[in-house]
Amino acid sequence: MKEQVVCKTTEIEPGEMKAAHFGKQNVLVCRTLDGEFYAFLNQCTHQGAPLDKGMICGATTNESKPGDYRYCRKGEIIRCPWHGREFDIKDEGRMLANPNKKLPSYKVRVEDQNVIVYK
Amino acid sequence: MSKEQIRIVDTDIHERVQYKDILKYLDEPFKHYIQNCHWMQEKHMPYTQPSVAGVDRADATVPDGRPAGSDLAFMQKQLLDDIDHEFGILTSALDPSPSSMHGWYEMATALASAYNDWQIDEWLEKDDRLYGSVHIAAQDRDAAIREIERVGSHPKMVQVLLPIDDIMWGDPFFHPFFEAAEKHHLMIGMHHNEPPVYYGKWPRYFIEWHTLIPTAHMKQVANMIFNGVFDKFPNLGLMMIEGGFTWVPHIMWKMNQQYRDLRHEVPWLKRKPSDIFKEQIRVTTQPAEELTKQEFTSLIEQMGSDEILCFSTDYPHWDYDSPTRALPNMDPELKKKIFAENAKAFYPKLPK
Ligand code: FES
């Protein structure tokens, strides 16, 4: 099984993300506000934008009624830098508007302050 | 585009000016009003939040912090060199267009002239690949014609840019613009400005506004055709910019069917509206809906011509279309037309 240290835990604050290399692949390492790490292919499934140039933020949820906004999930949503599609970090990188589409993801574990990505 | 080696002609690139950059091109007292009195253009659009960086691609901000589209070197690096553009047509981000500004015609006229000079000096003359658009302030018709005459003969100016808002450009009052454009081998480019849908008002949501922009493009096309602009100016062409393209078969069918019933009202039309469209109107592709190859091919068949569509990125805006990802795979011949040859055939001043 291929695995690789992609960065130190201290390099990414909760609520932030960063591009890294996993072999030849460009991966996006994300850290949610609870301190957990996640990794996805750093390329939007739509037209291929580099996701690390977008942002991690929250989202308005679809439980809202017309005219009603609820903003939550802070630090758990990746928004693409181009057309702004939203991907749910804690739900396998699924797109909010179309959960059948997801960002290709990698497994991640932390050992001694090393963030390790593996297949 | 490396696979088939097509060098693209990008028909919609938005360069952006900052007022400090055009001060030197402005005559007094207009320079004074900007420099000392903080004049700025009115802003209309109530929703500037569609994506992560407002209406721009978040990765297009110039590294030193200046707004997207304001630096030629960065545009070269991120767009023109990276994709290997053959040509790009500049369409500006002078919001709103001088023709859409309210009141103070003199300032709108001065701003359009300064912008044209800045565009020529800082973009067209600094990069061989870039071609430009003549900006005018249509409120003062005679001054606008003088501006077309002043810069229209520049070898790299390819079109006169008219905003789509609440002005219907096919009205005979504006025909002198077309006469001046034709004289200088300029085409007309139309790009929506603010607010072209909802009867001059804004809907509640950006998603409504942005969904319905093609309706504004259809209105201008019908208006230009039925007012006889293309019969009166047979060498004139119209490029509809940034309205997408899936609306084209609909408006062609609708106009043809209406023409069969109502020809008597517009007897100057010598051709079927769809033939006028095929001969004199072109449409940029962005923002492209996600179509399958089959859907895309079928649409082209419905248009009855594969010479209408001209690829555009809309760089550096948030709804940018990637040349490799936005349109489905297509046959190499068709691809060549859409990505390069149609635009070259349309603009007389683009090298063939
Ligand atoms: S490329 Fe990411 S939303 Fe379009």
UniProtKB/TrEMBL annotation, chain A:
CDD domains: Rieske. The keyword Metal-binding applies. Residues 4-117 form the Rieske domain. It holds the Pfam family Rieske. InterPro entries: Rieske_2Fe-2S (IPR017941), Rieske_2Fe-2S_sf (IPR036922). Keywords: 2Fe-2S, Dioxygenase, Iron, Iron-sulfur, Metal-binding, Oxidoreductase. GO terms for molecular function: 2 iron, 2 sulfur cluster binding; dioxygenase activity; metal ion binding; monooxygenase activity; oxidoreductase activity, acting on paired donors, with incorporation or reduction of molecular oxygen. PANTHER family: 3-PHENYLPROPIONATE_CINNAMIC ACID DIOXYGENASE FERREDOXIN SUBUNIT, FERREDOXIN-RELATED. This is Ferredoxin subunit of nitrite reductase or a ring-hydroxylating dioxygenase.
From TrEMBL, chain B:
GO terms for cellular component: cytoplasm. This is Predicted metal-dependent hydrolase, TIM-barrel fold. The keyword Hydrolase applies. GO terms for molecular function: carboxy-lyase activity; hydrolase activity. It holds the Pfam family Amidohydro_2. Residues 49-348 form the Amidohydrolase-related domain. The keyword Hydrolase applies. The lineage of its organism: Bacteria, Bacillati, Bacillota, Bacilli, Bacillales. GO terms for biological process: secondary metabolic process. Keywords: Hydrolase, Lyase.
